[in-house]
Specification:
With 370 residues, the chain is α/β, with parallel strands linked by helices. It has helices at 2-9, 85-94, 105-124, 153-160, 174-178, 182-193, 207-215, 227-235, 249-257, 273-279, 282-291, 296-302, 318-330, 332-344, 349-369, and strands at residues 15-26, 31-40, 43-48, 56-61, 66-67, 71-76, 97-102, 129-134, 165-171, 197-200, 220-221, 239-243, 264-267. Strands 6-7-8-9-10-11-12-13 form an eight-stranded parallel sheet. Helix 4 (153-160) links the parallel strand 8 (129-134) and strand 9 (165-171). The radius of gyration is 22 Å and the shape is globular. The model is unreliable at 313-317 (pLDDT under 50). Bound molecules: zinc ion. Residues 75, 77, 103, 170, 222, 269 line the site of zinc ion.
Length: 370
């Protein structure tokens, strides 16, 4: 695999695919450059200037459209979509989301470890990359609810051993943590000993209590209600995950001005099915943030680069991407849409709808075949 990439880069073998004539959105340099993308074994081997001659087995004219990374949603719950993982994947992929970090705390409240194991099994062969977290706060308000399961340190160990579980799910009982509750701390400690990332939920804490939460090793928060809280959490080294319902002009201004940019993400958290179908997925949060004045490249960056998840090992989705281009060329509707994009050079509303339909059908057939 690595050898194929170097061979293509050295010009000793053709690229599997070259997408020419695209505006590549580079989220590392915060710039947009015209050029081509060379792909080998489903991986981007390199990007090249428009004049560079590239040998390729297949080539697609991108019609000067923007080429973006797939979106990464680092805080969400599959259950709130009311869809099975397979059907959720169809919708999310058609909206450009290629990775989600899902906390299965609803299913864990009902079915415990078996529920999380079942969900992990259902996610394993999807074309969508799913990282699961081990639900930390089950039940979320001990003594006040009749949940079907309790998570203590032993259950946490068992959850983290499930293949596909990559981190600790949002620690919601922030008052218990800040008050030094032993059970909650032993759950966090069990996860920290596994070396995984620790997700938080700390809406009400500020000052010394917020610092205590951070000192417990919690890496992130997605319940930031104000620009001031965003600044406070960034200053403490939290990764701040901003969801759509928190977006306003003030927060967006604070995001534009933040001195540290690599610890801000846009996330969806809970998107019920009607909103998912009407508005879309993380793409909607990105659009909304831009509407409110967020720098567009920043918005895309917040939905794509995640240092936070950098050490997480996940199964490859190369195969999905690889056969997508074949599908687009060979399927009559797909070829017609690609042809319209190539000849008109832009993606109008009708073409976009047609493309969505084709992508949904491709994803359906991919899921069926795997
Ligand atoms: Zn959440």
């Amino acid at each position: 695999m690595l050898k194929d990439i170097t061979e293509a880069m050295l010009g000793r073998r053709p690229f599997d695919l070259v997408i020419r004539n695209v505006q590549i959105v580079n989220v590392f340099s915060a710039s947009i450059v015209s050029g081509s993308i060379g792909i080998v074994n489903g991986h981007i081997a390199g990007v090249f200037g428009p004049e560079e001659a590239l040998d390729s087995r297949r080539s697609i004219d991108g019609g000067n459209a923007y080429a973006l990374h797939g979106s990464v949603d680092s805080q969400m719950h599959l259950e709130s979509s009311m869809l099975t993982p397979e059907h959720f994947a169809q919708v999310a992929l058609s909206c450009g989301t290629t990775t989600v970090c899902a906390d299965p705390h609803e299913i864990a409240n009902v079915l415990g470890i078996e529920g999380v194991r079942g969900l992990a099994d259902a996610c394993r062969s999807l074309p969508l990359r799913v990282l699961l977290t081990a639900p930390s706060t089950i039940p979320s308000a001990p003594g006040l609810e009749d949940s079907g399961f309790d998570v203590g340190p032993a259950e946490m160990e068992a959850l983290l051993d499930i293949p596909g579980v990559a981190g600790l799910g949002e620690v919601m009982d922030f008052n218990a943590v800040a008050a030094g509750d032993e059970r909650m701390l032993s759950v966090i400690e069990a996860a920290a000993n596994h070396g995984v990332f620790l997700d938080g939920h700390v809406s009400a804490l500020t000052g010394r209590r917020l610092q205590t939460f951070r000192a417990m090793g919690i890496d992130s928060d997605h319940t930031v209600p104000s620009a001031e809280k965003l600044r406070e959490e960034l200053a403490l080294g939290f990764t701040v995950q901003v969801q759509e319902c928190m977006l306003n002009r003030e927060i967006v201004q604070a995001m534009n001005d933040a001195p540290v940019q690599d610890r801000i993400c846009l996330v969806t958290d809970d998107v019920p099915l009607p909103r998912l179908m009407r508005q879309g997925h993380l793409n909607f949060v990105v659009e909304r943030a831009i509407e409110l004045g967020l720098d567009p490249i920043r918005a895309i960056r917040y939905a794509t680069i995640h240092d936070y998840l950098v050490n997480v090992k996940v199964p490859d989705v190369a195969e999905y991407e690889k056969s997508l281009y074949e599908y687009l060329d060979n399927d009559a509707a797909g070829a017609a849409v690609m042809d319209t994009i190539r000849t008109t050079g832009n993606l109008d509303k009708d073409t976009e709808e047609q493309l969505k339909t084709v992508l949904t059908r491709y994803t359906e057939s991919f899921v069926k075949a795997h």
